[in-house]
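#help-structures

NK: newbie question. if I give both the sequence and a SMILES, will the prediction place the ligand too? trying with adenosine-5'-triphosphate
OV: yes, paste both and it writes out the complex. here, I ran yours:
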Amino acid sequence: MSYVLVEYRNIHIDYENKKIINNFNLKVKKGDKILFKGRSGSGKSTLLKLIMGFSFPSEGLIYFNGNCLDCYNIWEVREQVCYISQYLDIWEGPVTNIFDEIFSYRKNLDKFDRNKLEYFLEYFDLDHKILQQDYDELSGGEKQRICIIIALLLDRDVYLLDEITSSLDQNMKEKVINYFVGNKDWTLIVASHDNQWEMDNMKVINIGD
Ligand SMILES: Nc1ncnc2c1ncn2[C@@H]1O[C@H](COP(=O)(O)OP(=O)(O)OP(=O)(O)O)[C@@H](O)[C@H]1O
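OV: that's the protein plus ligand as structure tokens.
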């Protein structure tokens, strides 16, 4: 049965005396596919970051699985949720070293699956040679796909996707969107300006209206 996984309760966000979010309330059930739409600066990314504890509300509470988030249980949330940032310049060095580092952490040790990596490289149309290239030298779309592959290998079932298709061509966008939206068990909260995310099973929430 579907239950409430994430709840935003009476959320207000102010930055430097500017009101960004005014009394936002939302319950996200397990398996829901949510799309946050809204003008640039309306607070979409900030709403995603609240769930990871990367931003904090000025007022209001966030619940995950019935628990009010605090500085202790946020670590449990981070083990279950994956946030893919819209900022791509978060890694450096050869791509293979990035995978090695991420999957050397104790919590991720058992997540690395070479067969899955090979499968995702092919599915997302990346040449195997990319593993030897420097991340800095990749195109925006290549970086975006590497970040997506890392997230998929981490094998979560809640994904917070912050403009993850902005550098992809039409065909690749469709593949990425279908991959995420097509998994009925995953809970998705997507922040995007791209109408392609507005599929039948996506619930669109306008932020800043
Ligand atoms: N740490 C911060 N300190 C001050 N202002 C911030 C901070 N984080 C976000 N903001 C401001 O809050 C507003 C909302 O930012 P946010 O990135 O959430 O918007 P967005 O809707 O995701 O925008 P975009 O569509 O351009 O990605 C912006 O005006 C931004 O400058």
